Amino acid sequence: MPAPDVLIHARGLAKKFGDAVAVAGIDFDLRRGEAFGFLGPNGAGKSSTMRMIGCVSPPSGGELSILGLDPVADGPAIRARLGVVPQEDTLDVELTVRENLLIYGRYFGLPRDVIAERTARLLEFVQLADRAGDQVEPLSGGMKRRLTIARSLINDPEILLLDEPTTGLDPQARHAVWDRLYRLKQRGVTLVLTTHYMDEAEQLCDRLMVMDRGMIAAEGSPRELIERYSTPEVLELRFDPAEHQQAAEKLAELAPQRAAEMGSSPPGLGPAQLADAPAERMEVLADRVLLYTQNGDTALAAVRGLGLEPLTSLVRRSTLEDVFLRLTGRRLED
Amino acid sequence: MSRALAIREFRFWLTNYRRTWRGSIYSSVLNPVLYLGAMGLGLGALVDRHGAGGLGTRSLGGVSYLVFLAPGLLAAGAMQTAMGESTYPVLGSVKWLKTYQAAAATPLRPADIFHGHLLFTVMRLAMNSVIFVAVMAAFGAVRSPGVLAAVPVAVLTGLAFAAPVEAYAVSRTKDQSFAMLFRFGMIPLFLFSGTFFPVSQLPGWVRPAAYATPLWQGVALCRSLSLGTATLGGALLHVTYLILLAAAGIAAGHRTYRRRLYV
Predict the structure, then answer these.
(1) CA nearest A106 in B: which residue?
(2) What count of CB pairs under 8 Å joins A to B?
(3) What is the pLDDT of residue B47?
């Protein structure tokens, strides 16, 4: 029996489409007031998980309870208490902004006066009050997304589900959406979102589940994940494409753990030596080499000490992208 | 609970319809006027003149072509309305606009969404059938007050098409299927189910096929009600057939809507 503040409880949750496994048995608990994110590339099983939580996709296996109810038997009762922002807009573009909220409020069986009062407040909140009487069709992508968010709040939901809330938006529109979601989070609305943008996950989520191929690769706060799976700094190096491979081989000397992982660790190389090495780990990408290090400048000096001169070099802090790369060997947005 | 939830989807369609109802009323009036004018009066004059002393009007049941044709068109029109409402609007809702998915994220279940849409289709059928009968009366094409009972029969005929076609439409991924359905389903039925001429005019070997079509059931019953020749037994048979077809379509729709919306 999950603790009373657990709103969503999943054990061994699985989803199969024929022989294809979308979600391969995952466990998680989501607590009231959390901003919880599923981070992973396309095809990781994030949307399938979201659809199961949204009670529009029956699980193929495992346990799932939402607000203490069974999503298969109590779908309507659960959905009455959820707000959903789907990946693709499902607005009625032929109706006006206000009519979209009216229709949606009616779907939840709300009386007209309640809908009218909430519509005014929600359109104010998503900065669309001046467009209330306009048709939806000509609105920009960012406005439609904000309207979808307003619509998802019409029933005053206990949990707000957002499936890739800013995919396809330009940077300015994304920031506007993030700002609104951040305000909801501050008010204590429980958010569950999926994203393949690490900056979105970092900005909005208290706790993250890194998903890959239908499984959970890691779980924790963005800070914890970075501390656990990456180094404080990353040195990014770009070489002439002709020299890229050779440079990468030479750089392996600076990152003994990389060598250790590859099974060619020189005997007698203990953790002390690993810590002393200029870089703890190295990732060779198609166009760049990443050195994971305590201190980027020291590592860069060591690179130059090897007689290598990169075309460009950049020292930056570790991000969730680095965590993902470490955990899966792949990049998020590939 | 189920009925209340379906009403919410019905209201959605009603809200949508508020933008287009004027145009739709024009065509609901214009269609019967054009058909009864051109076919009933224009072509009818020719039929009646040649049939005056001979076989013509006898095989029409001893009435003018206009009087024969009008109730057939009432049923055939209901089929066309049903096909229109249950093909593109359904696929549009699930594929292009995704308003079905929007509704599925609320307390509504796939069956509620289906019932709500079907209810709206029934409303459109009722509107069109009432208008049609009024135009019929204005043309003097009614022989019996029984024509009032032809309104629910036309609605039922439409429903017998709408339910299975909506069930089918929601499972489609492309709208090409509809062109096939119109070309090989609706148009042959429209032409050969006794609307424009009695099925007895068809070669003997095709007649059973014509009698087996749902449109003929609707045409025959609407016609007998309009002419005042309906019998209780015959009416029960036609109505039972149409109800069974509608029920089968509704049962199929429960499966196809769930399968499409609960992936």
Answers:
(1) B8
(2) 73
(3) 86
